Amino acid sequence: MSLQLLDPRQQKPDLTPSILNETLAVEQGGNLANSTIQHASDVVMWVWLFSEIRRAPFKAPSRRQLELQWRRTHKEVLRGYLGQWVVLQGERILASGPSLAEAVKQAREMGVRVPYVFRVEDLDENIATIGL
Amino acid sequence: MATITYPHDFPYTDMGNGHFPMLQFIIQSPNEQAEAIDVDGFLDSGASYSLFDGSILAAIGLDLMGGPARLYQPVAGPQIEARVHRVRPAHDRLGNFTLDIGFSTGPISRNLLGRDFFDLIQVGFREHHRTLLIDATP
Question: Would B114 disulfide with which of A69, B33, B50, B67, CB 3.0-4.6 Å?
Answer without folding.
Answer: B50
